[in-house]
Amino acid sequence: MSNTPWNLAAKLSAVALTFCSVQVSAATWRYAIEESMTEVQGVYATKFKEVIEANSNHKVNIYPFGTLGESVDVMEQAQAGILQFVDQSPGFTGSLIPEAQVFLMPYVLPEKQSEINYFFKNSKVINEDFPKLYAEKDLELLSMFPEGRVHITTQQPFESPEDLDGVKVRVMTSPLLVETYKSFGAVPTPLPWGEVFGALQTKMIQGQENPMFYIESTKMYEVSEVITDIGHNIFTTAVMANKHFYDSLPAEDQALIQQAISEATDYILEYQQGLEEESIAKVKAAKPSITLVSLEEDKRVRFREASAPVKDKFVAMTGESGKAILEQMEVDLKAAIGK
Ligand code: 6CS
Asked: How far is the CA of 34 from the centre of ligand 1 (A)?
């Protein structure tokens, strides 16, 4: 095309149009997490933001824990579309989607890191079944990923369910976690995260459970004397989008979100290699008097046996739908063995 005035004007307006359409489609997306920017959910969200912003004109604003309220408030905002993305763990989502509590069931998820990673990336239950259940609550489930092996902090050592008699242990606000800790012999005390440190400090509760990185970063060890690993669970979390928002996006934006989620999921699994050991070292350095216990198998078996009926409680809470989820999860877990 020659540069006649007419052609030049056409070219300029084409450029202007392109520029305008880019400007119009550029959006700012809000993404809330339950942790700080330097904790696992924050690292994940930061990677997601980097991928989105490097490949589009969109911006992602991340809201760490405390800026928008407790987990339950944040979920309401995500369902209402005030937030476009949210990270919420099944320990809180369980009150909205009871089946999500399958991830809280003791002694179900494997302990081997490569098996855990394989399960989270490849399982049918996560990639096909759960998205349908989240969709019923106006949520587009984008990813579920592990945040580390759960440890229990207490004031006194324990080796059996009898030792936990009368010990108040904070759990996330999930009925299934309440049942689990009852079966462990303790007095489960469901609390939102913002109340946990204070409750330990005032001795309203004696313990709580969380992965090691979180016990270290939130300084739970300052208000605890003993940290025990009974090998009962892996902390699971989930990232989702408001469904109406996601469904109304152009295909290229949906593809970009999927790309960012896939990169962030790979990144966070890699990022967590060695994190538990590093966190243990930091805790020991900060509080040399702390007692760390990894319960031997002959002691773990007591907790395993005592909590076996929690499976039936899960089915009673979730009915046929939960039973199908549990069965599929068992199939998926078998497929992960040896990976
Ligand atoms: O225990 C809790 O409530 C919190 N634990 C972790 C690891 N992440 C966020 C959640 O609020």
From this structure: 7
